[in-house]
Every structure is written in structure tokens, then in C-alpha cells.
Design goal:
By secondary structure, this protein is of the alpha+beta class. The protein is built from ten helices and 21 strands. Helix 1 runs parallel beside helix 10, helix 2 crosses helix 10 and helix 3 packs antiparallel against helix 7. The protein is globular, with a radius of gyration of 21 Å. The structure holds flavin-adenine dinucleotide. Flavin-adenine dinucleotide (FAD) binds next to helix 1, strand 14, strand 19 and helix 10.
Length: about 375
């Protein structure tokens, strides 16, 4: 149908790949340009959690649920490892428990239910019983292991005929609907999608600056594989997370919870620490994170921050083997205006997707579908 129309994509992170798949399925010819020899950006540095529970109920939650369903179907079709067993947010203080109950009453939606303390301890033995009040169980969430899922998605796209040029930075977009690589090669397109992750200074830097977005760097860790039989049972989060995602912002008790956290946890507040624990197929657990905002940050990774993250984890979950196998940093762009997905059109036929914050893996499929539907409308 659209096979005579060319889509060029800058960036082989998840946002680029999601657009590549949606465009290929719509019949477009698709070529992806990636500056590195393989994707090394946020898409392989994250938790791999697909996280509708973090999205505000309404259109954004629907988009996230679409993303979760799409990942499940794709994983079933391609064999990409995923754990479909959802999420559990646990409350270890009254104000957090109050927020979870309000979220449930405010229409957390289908797939979400409150669990009492005893039920949690029966079903999720890794949860710390000390001070446990209750929790919010979600079934739509899932976990991927993105260092393997993203390459598997690339293999799938190659099999569908998507062409990849790795080690090929795109340095310029020309007026005549063509891009130029660092080797001076030109590639014509009908539509161009730029999903360049944290790169803000190369392609359309003025438009990016005008969009008021800021880099955010996060410290992450992965535990050693846990002993056989140790099973988190779901992605676990605790009290600190409730203030982090927009989903809980309308809960009347949230300000009280945030005030308590600010008063009690200075370093956690300063470093924007909240904690997610997500277990993978090798029984290792990805743990994070902190949030440090700004351009050109010092390269250091802070031991004190990692210690705070691990202490916060221990307040709501106990690992059988707490040793850390690997630590890394990831960066995403975030809107300073509170927009969860920033889409720019610096020129006709050029779409830039940027600043998906900490929900890009969750919202990306829905956004890619929207972009490709728009291209289809233009091309009919
Ligand atoms: C630590 C961390 C944890 C996160 N956890 C989650 C989570 O659990 N759930 C969730 O939904 N989201 C999460 N996110 C957010 C999510 O990972 C991002 O929103 C998403 O991966 C962004 O994808 P992307 O393709 O835009 O960027 P990236 O993955 O960074 O990819 C951009 C690619 O573009 C390439 N590129 C840049 N410039 C050029 C150029 N000029 N020419 C060619 N190639 C270029 C880069 O090399 C890179 O490979 C997390 C992010 C981080 C950093």
C-alpha cells in the first residue's frame, strides 16, 4: 500500500523501533540510522517495566494499556522474554496507604485492586512485613529485560524487511527531504522520524531548546541473580514512588505523604530517589533510581546515592542476596512544563519525538501508532 513511500528513522532506541514496526506493518519502506554500533541509550538502561499504573487515568492510561497489550502480543509472537505478572505498590506508612486507597477509590481502573497486609505477605514473601499497611495490586504491568528485548526487536524488524545502518550518525536534515550522514551520504525520505534520545545539540537544537526540556540522569543497579526459588512475584514499588508518577497527583493525601518524606528523607528528596525493583529471567533484579537534572553533569556516579536507594528498597522488600552485580547511569529528556510526551514538527515531513521521561517504554507504542496513522492520512 505505502511501500513506495520511504520512512527514515534517526535512532534505534525503543521510540525509533516502535515507529519502525508500526510503519512497516502499515506497508512503508523503513530505514533506521543509528550512530552507535548498537543501541546504547535509555532503551537498554531502564527497568524494562511497562507501567500503566504510573499514568493518569484517562487517555494517557489508555495509551499505556495499549502499549502493555502490544508488548505482550509481540513478546508472545517473537519469544521476547517478559514477566506478565503485574505490579505491587506497597505502603509502609499511613499516609502512603491513604494515597493508595484514594487512588483505588478515584478509579484506578480495571486491573487494579487493594490488597491487605496478610494477603500481601502470603502472596509476596519478599515484601518487608515491618510496618506494612497494605498495597495496590496491578495486573496490566509487565517486565522486560531490555538489554536483550531491544536487540530481539531489531531482529524481528530485520526479518520484516526494515533496513538498519549502524555506526551511522545523521548529521543534517536537508531542505529537499533528505538526510545526510557523517560520511556525507544522502538518503531521501517521504517522512522522517527523529528519536535521538538525549542528543539535543545536533538535529534541530533550536526547536528542542524552545520546547523547554532538560536532561535527567538516573543511577541504576542490578543485583546478582537471586537464589533459586526467590521470586518477587511482581514489580515492587514502595512509598517514595507515589510522589514520582503523575497517576497519584490528584489523591488528596499525596501532599501530606510528600511533606512527611521531605521532612524525614533529606537526601532522598535532594536526589529525587524513589525505588522500583524488577526481576528478570536470570533472577537478577534491576533496582533504581535517582534523578539529577541539568546539562553537562559531572560524570561521577555517587556511592551515597546507591546506598540510599538500597536502604529505601530494604524498607519495603528483602532480597535473598543483596549483592550488586552492576551499576550504570541512564539519561532521558524531560519536559519542564510537565508534558509527558513531546512531539515536534520542525519541518513538514519531519517528526521529532523527545522527552518521554520515565515512561517511554510504556507510551511508545501508542505514540508510534498515532504518528503512523497521521502519515497514512497524509499519504492517501
Ligand atoms: C534509567 C532509566 C529508567 C527508565 N525506566 C523506564 C521504565 O521502567 N519504563 C518506561 O516506560 N520507561 C522507562 N524509562 C524511559 C525510557 O527508557 C525512554 O523514554 C525511552 O527508552 C526513550 O527511547 P528513545 O528511543 O527516545 O531514546 P534512546 O533509547 O536513548 O535511543 C536514542 C538513540 O538515538 C541514537 N542517536 C542519537 N542521535 C543520533 C544521530 N544524530 N544519528 C543517529 N543516531 C542517533 C542514539 O545513539 C540512541 O541509540 C527509563 C529511562 C531511564 C534512563
Amino acid at each position: 500500500m505505502n511501500s513506495h513511500r520511504n520512512i527514515a528513522i534517526v535512532g534505534s532506541g525503543f521510540i525509533g523501533l516502535a515507529h519502525a514496526l508500526m510503519a512497516r506493518e502499515a506497508g512503508y519502506s523503513v530505514t533506521v540510522f543509528e550512530r552507535h554500533g548498537r543501541p546504547l541509550g535509555a532503551s537498554i538502561r531502564n527497568f524494562g517495566t511497562i507501567w500503566p499504573v504510573g499514568c493518569v487515568p484517562g487517555p494517557e492510561r489508555e495509551q499505556a494499556l495499549f502499549g502493555a497489550r502490544y508488548w505482550r502480543e509481540l513478546a508472545a509472537k517473537t519469544g521476547i522474554w517478559h514477566d506478565p505478572r503485574g505490579s505491587l505498590g506497597v505502603a509502609h506508612r499511613d499516609s502512603a496507604w491513604q494515597v493508595l486507597q484514594e487512588a483505588a477509590a478515584n478509579g484506578a481502573g480495571e486491573g487494579y485492586a487493594l490488597l491487605g497486609r496478610e494477603e500481601i505477605l502470603r502472596e509476596f514473601p519478599a515484601v518487608n512485613p515491618d510496618g506494612l499497611r497494605g498495597g495496590l495490586r496491578g495486573t496490566p504491568e509487565l517486565v522486560l529485560h531490555t538489554p536483550t528485548a531491544i536487540p530481539a526487536l531489531i531482529d524481528h524488524l530485520r526479518a520484516l524487511g526494515v533496513v538498519f545502518h549502524f555506526g551511522t550518525p545523521v548529521v543534517r536534515v536537508l531542505d529537499e527531504n533528505a538526510l545526510e550522514t557523517s560520511l556525507g551520504e544522502r538518503h531521501a525520505f517521504d517522512h522522517l522520524l527523529i528519536a535521538a534520545g538525549e542528543e539535543m545539540r545536533l538535529l534541530f537544537p533550536r526547536e528542542l531548546a524552545a520546547a523547554e526540556i532538560v536532561p535527567c540522569r538516573l543511577q541504576m543497579m542490578r543485583s546478582v541473580p537471586q537464589p533459586a526459588g526467590f521470586d518477587l512475584g511482581a514489580v515492587l514499588v514502595g512509598d517514595l514512588t507515589l510522589g514520582h508518577y503523575p497517576a497519584f497527583r490528584d489523591c488528596p493525601s499525596l501532599p501530606a505523604l510528600q511533606a512527611e518524606i521531605r521532612a524525614e528523607f533529606h537526601d532522598e528528596t535532594r536526589w529525587g530517589i524513589h525505588v522500583i525493583a524488577a526481576q528478570h529471567h536470570d533472577r537478577s533484579i534491576t533496582i533504581g533510581d535517582s534523578h539529577e537534572y541539568g546539562d553537562d553533569l559531572d560524570p561521577g556516579s555517587y556511592t551515597a546515592v546507591d546506598e540510599r536507594i538500597l536502604a529505601a528498597l530494604a524498607r519495603f522488600a528483602k532480597l535473598a542476596d543483596p549483592r550488586i552485580a552492576t551499576r550504570w547511569q541512564g539519561t532521558y529528556l524531560k519536559s519542564t512544563r510537565g508534558i509527558t510526551q513531546v512531539v515536534l514538527h520542525p519541518r513538514d515531513n519531519v517528526t521529532m519525538v523527545t522527552a518521554m521521561g520515565g515512561l517511554g517504554m510504556t507510551l511508545g507504542w501508542g505514540l508510534a501508532k498515532r504518528t503512523v496513522d497521521h502519515w497514512k492520512t497524509l499519504d492517501t
